[in-house]
Amino acid sequence: MATNSGVTSGREPGPAGAVKREEEDAAGGGAGTAAAPAEANGGTHAGSPAKQCALCPLGEAAEEALGPLLEFRCTAKQRPQGVAGRVVLVHSLCAQWAPRAHYSEEAAAQHSLLMVPDEVQRARKLRCRLCRKPGAAMGCEERTCQQTYHLPCAMGQVG
């Protein structure tokens, strides 16, 4: 079984919920949930009524542990198969632990993070070693190991 110490993103994560949704700030706050725009089909996978993170198998129910589901604008090429619209949802901690995502003050940064849609695109081809579902962005810290994991799977919160 993998432990958090056996999986790395190359940096320590910030506190849960450290990244706030721009829409919540503009609306005067909220419960920390992401309300996806109508054209994004709620950011859900086709046929699924619940909101789903693009980088882990969990959704809204895991927001207390993984932070709020944040909306990231993406191209058709970047979003996972089965997701309609131009927005994907990613827990704040899942985004922070994605290896190529990083904080930036650039205007192009979404929720102060760059490269999250690119990580979603890369991870959709990778299956988690533990749960076997796609979207596993985190790799093992051993350079020769090619196993990948979802953040909550590596933390022992799934399965």
UniProtKB/TrEMBL annotation:
Q: Does the keyword Secreted apply?
A: no
What does the UniProt keyword field contain?
DNA damage, DNA repair, Metal-binding, Nucleus, Repeat, Zinc, Zinc-finger
Task: Locate the compositionally biased regions of type Low complexity.
Answer: 33-43
Q: What is this protein called?
A: PHD-type domain-containing protein
Pfam families for the chain = zf-HC5HC2H
Q: Which domain of life is it from?
A: Eukaryota
Localization, per the record, is: Nucleus
In its UniProt record, a GO molecular function of this protein is:
zinc ion binding
Q: Just give the chief location class.
A: nucleus
Instruction: Tell me which GO cellular component terms the UniProt record holds.
Output: nucleus
The chain positions of domain PHD-type read 50-159
